[in-house]
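Work Package 3 (structural annotation) set out to generate three-dimensional models for the target panel prioritized at the project kickoff. During this period the team completed the workflow that converts sequence records into C-alpha coordinates, so that structures can be stored uniformly alongside our sequence database. As a representative example, we reproduce one entry of 198 residues exactly as it appears in the project archive.
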Amino acid sequence: MWTLEELVGRVTLIYGVAGSGKTNLCLWTMSRGPGVGLYIGTEGAVPLDLLSRYGLTEGERLFVKEVFSVEDLAVELLDMYVCGLLNRFSGVCVDSINAHYRYEATWRADAGRLMNTALALLSQLASLYGSYVLLTAQVREEEGEELPSGYELLEFWSDAIVRITRSGSRRIIEWLKPDSYRGRRAVFTIGERGVEFE
Protein backbone atom coordinates (compact mmCIF):
# COMPACT_ATOMS: atom_id res chain seq x y z
CA MET A 1 0.00 0.00 0.00
CA TRP A 2 1.02 3.63 -0.50
CA THR A 3 1.00 5.40 2.88
CA LEU A 4 2.04 8.89 3.87
CA GLU A 5 3.83 7.58 6.96
CA GLU A 6 6.35 5.73 4.78
CA LEU A 7 7.08 8.88 2.75
CA VAL A 8 7.82 11.25 5.63
CA GLY A 9 11.48 12.22 5.88
CA ARG A 10 12.19 10.87 2.41
CA VAL A 11 12.64 11.98 -1.16
CA THR A 12 10.55 9.69 -3.35
CA LEU A 13 10.93 9.57 -7.13
CA ILE A 14 7.84 8.51 -9.07
CA TYR A 15 8.35 7.86 -12.76
CA GLY A 16 6.34 6.56 -15.69
CA VAL A 17 4.96 7.49 -19.09
CA ALA A 18 2.59 10.40 -19.65
CA GLY A 19 -0.88 9.64 -18.32
CA SER A 20 0.25 6.94 -15.92
CA GLY A 21 -1.15 8.81 -12.90
CA LYS A 22 1.94 10.42 -11.37
CA THR A 23 0.36 13.85 -10.78
CA ASN A 24 -2.87 12.37 -9.44
CA LEU A 25 -0.92 10.18 -7.01
CA CYS A 26 1.10 13.15 -5.75
CA LEU A 27 -1.92 15.39 -5.23
CA TRP A 28 -3.89 12.58 -3.58
CA THR A 29 -0.96 12.09 -1.19
CA MET A 30 -0.69 15.81 -0.45
CA SER A 31 -4.42 16.02 0.26
CA ARG A 32 -3.94 13.49 3.07
CA GLY A 33 -0.94 15.16 4.64
CA PRO A 34 -1.02 17.59 7.55
CA GLY A 35 -0.02 21.23 7.27
CA VAL A 36 0.73 23.18 4.13
CA GLY A 37 2.11 21.58 0.98
CA LEU A 38 4.17 23.06 -1.84
CA TYR A 39 3.41 22.09 -5.44
CA ILE A 40 5.97 23.14 -8.05
CA GLY A 41 4.81 22.76 -11.64
CA THR A 42 7.33 22.69 -14.48
CA GLU A 43 5.17 21.90 -17.49
CA GLY A 44 2.93 24.89 -18.00
CA ALA A 45 -0.41 25.59 -16.39
CA VAL A 46 -1.00 24.09 -12.96
CA PRO A 47 -3.81 21.48 -13.10
CA LEU A 48 -6.46 23.47 -11.20
CA ASP A 49 -9.12 20.82 -11.86
CA LEU A 50 -6.96 18.24 -10.10
CA LEU A 51 -6.19 20.58 -7.20
CA SER A 52 -9.92 21.09 -6.77
CA ARG A 53 -10.63 17.33 -7.07
CA TYR A 54 -8.42 16.70 -4.06
CA GLY A 55 -9.64 19.66 -2.00
CA LEU A 56 -6.32 21.49 -2.29
CA THR A 57 -7.84 24.81 -3.38
CA GLU A 58 -9.57 25.28 -0.03
CA GLY A 59 -8.00 27.44 2.67
CA GLU A 60 -4.23 27.44 2.84
CA ARG A 61 -3.63 23.78 2.09
CA LEU A 62 -1.29 24.26 -0.84
CA PHE A 63 1.21 26.83 -2.05
CA VAL A 64 1.69 26.66 -5.83
CA LYS A 65 4.76 27.73 -7.83
CA GLU A 66 5.55 27.46 -11.50
CA VAL A 67 9.13 27.29 -12.79
CA PHE A 68 10.43 27.61 -16.34
CA SER A 69 13.98 26.21 -16.29
CA VAL A 70 16.40 24.17 -14.19
CA GLU A 71 17.95 27.43 -13.00
CA ASP A 72 14.53 28.81 -12.07
CA LEU A 73 13.83 25.70 -9.97
CA ALA A 74 17.16 25.92 -8.15
CA VAL A 75 16.83 29.67 -7.53
CA GLU A 76 13.24 29.41 -6.26
CA LEU A 77 14.16 26.65 -3.81
CA LEU A 78 17.31 28.46 -2.69
CA ASP A 79 15.39 31.70 -2.12
CA MET A 80 12.77 29.90 -0.04
CA TYR A 81 15.50 28.11 1.92
CA VAL A 82 17.46 31.30 2.67
CA CYS A 83 14.28 33.15 3.68
CA GLY A 84 13.29 30.32 6.02
CA LEU A 85 10.15 29.52 4.02
CA LEU A 86 11.03 26.08 2.71
CA ASN A 87 10.82 24.37 6.10
CA ARG A 88 7.22 25.52 6.62
CA PHE A 89 6.00 22.90 4.13
CA SER A 90 5.08 19.46 5.41
CA GLY A 91 5.23 18.09 1.87
CA VAL A 92 6.63 19.15 -1.50
CA CYS A 93 5.88 17.88 -4.98
CA VAL A 94 7.98 18.84 -8.01
CA ASP A 95 6.00 17.83 -11.08
CA SER A 96 7.98 17.04 -13.27
CA ILE A 97 11.51 17.37 -11.91
CA ASN A 98 13.26 16.55 -15.19
CA ALA A 99 11.02 18.43 -17.65
CA HIS A 100 13.55 21.20 -18.34
CA TYR A 101 16.68 19.22 -17.54
CA ARG A 102 16.12 16.80 -20.40
CA TYR A 103 16.61 19.63 -22.92
CA GLU A 104 18.89 21.99 -21.04
CA ALA A 105 21.48 19.29 -20.31
CA THR A 106 22.21 19.14 -24.06
CA TRP A 107 23.35 22.76 -24.28
CA ARG A 108 23.80 24.15 -20.79
CA ALA A 109 27.09 23.22 -19.09
CA ASP A 110 25.80 23.94 -15.58
CA ALA A 111 22.46 22.08 -15.91
CA GLY A 112 23.75 19.18 -13.78
CA ARG A 113 25.05 21.52 -11.07
CA LEU A 114 21.74 23.36 -10.94
CA MET A 115 19.77 20.13 -10.76
CA ASN A 116 22.07 18.86 -7.99
CA THR A 117 21.50 22.11 -6.06
CA ALA A 118 17.72 21.76 -6.29
CA LEU A 119 17.82 18.09 -5.29
CA ALA A 120 20.21 18.75 -2.39
CA LEU A 121 17.85 21.40 -0.98
CA LEU A 122 14.88 19.04 -1.27
CA SER A 123 16.86 16.23 0.35
CA GLN A 124 17.80 18.50 3.25
CA LEU A 125 14.17 19.52 3.67
CA ALA A 126 13.15 15.87 3.98
CA SER A 127 15.94 14.73 6.28
CA LEU A 128 16.22 17.77 8.57
CA TYR A 129 12.58 18.80 8.87
CA GLY A 130 10.77 15.49 8.38
CA SER A 131 8.91 16.66 5.31
CA TYR A 132 8.06 14.31 2.48
CA VAL A 133 9.26 15.18 -1.02
CA LEU A 134 7.67 13.72 -4.13
CA LEU A 135 9.41 14.07 -7.47
CA THR A 136 7.67 13.01 -10.65
CA ALA A 137 9.63 12.26 -13.80
CA GLN A 138 8.34 11.32 -17.21
CA VAL A 139 9.80 8.73 -19.52
CA ARG A 140 9.24 9.25 -23.24
CA GLU A 141 7.46 6.19 -24.57
CA GLU A 142 7.78 7.39 -28.16
CA GLU A 143 11.55 7.67 -27.73
CA GLY A 144 11.85 4.20 -26.21
CA GLU A 145 13.05 5.47 -22.83
CA GLU A 146 12.97 3.05 -19.95
CA LEU A 147 14.40 5.51 -17.41
CA PRO A 148 13.78 9.24 -17.04
CA SER A 149 16.31 11.77 -18.27
CA GLY A 150 18.77 12.63 -15.49
CA TYR A 151 18.13 9.30 -13.74
CA GLU A 152 21.63 9.07 -12.28
CA LEU A 153 21.16 12.37 -10.41
CA LEU A 154 17.61 11.52 -9.40
CA GLU A 155 18.60 8.07 -8.13
CA PHE A 156 21.46 9.51 -6.05
CA TRP A 157 19.21 11.97 -4.20
CA SER A 158 16.11 9.74 -3.89
CA ASP A 159 15.55 7.62 -0.81
CA ALA A 160 12.80 5.69 -2.59
CA ILE A 161 12.03 5.10 -6.28
CA VAL A 162 8.78 3.79 -7.71
CA ARG A 163 7.72 3.15 -11.28
CA ILE A 164 4.09 3.46 -12.38
CA THR A 165 2.79 1.42 -15.30
CA ARG A 166 -0.69 1.06 -16.73
CA SER A 167 -2.69 -2.07 -17.40
CA GLY A 168 -6.03 -0.97 -18.80
CA SER A 169 -7.59 1.34 -16.21
CA ARG A 170 -5.36 0.01 -13.43
CA ARG A 171 -2.14 1.76 -12.39
CA ILE A 172 0.56 -0.40 -10.88
CA ILE A 173 3.15 1.05 -8.50
CA GLU A 174 6.33 -0.99 -8.26
CA TRP A 175 9.07 -0.15 -5.75
CA LEU A 176 12.64 -0.21 -7.09
CA LYS A 177 14.41 1.40 -4.13
CA PRO A 178 15.23 0.83 -1.29
CA ASP A 179 16.24 -2.80 -1.65
CA SER A 180 14.01 -3.76 1.29
CA TYR A 181 10.96 -2.58 -0.71
CA ARG A 182 12.08 -3.91 -4.11
CA GLY A 183 9.30 -5.83 -5.85
CA ARG A 184 6.59 -4.45 -3.58
CA ARG A 185 3.49 -3.39 -5.51
CA ALA A 186 0.28 -1.44 -5.10
CA VAL A 187 -2.59 -0.97 -7.54
CA PHE A 188 -4.87 2.03 -7.97
CA THR A 189 -7.40 3.43 -10.40
CA ILE A 190 -8.33 7.03 -11.15
CA GLY A 191 -12.02 7.84 -11.25
CA GLU A 192 -14.22 10.89 -10.83
CA ARG A 193 -13.27 11.04 -7.15
CA GLY A 194 -9.59 10.66 -7.93
CA VAL A 195 -7.18 7.96 -6.80
CA GLU A 196 -8.67 4.80 -5.36
CA PHE A 197 -6.45 1.95 -4.16
CA GLU A 198 -7.53 -1.66 -4.60
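The longest helix spans residues 111-129.
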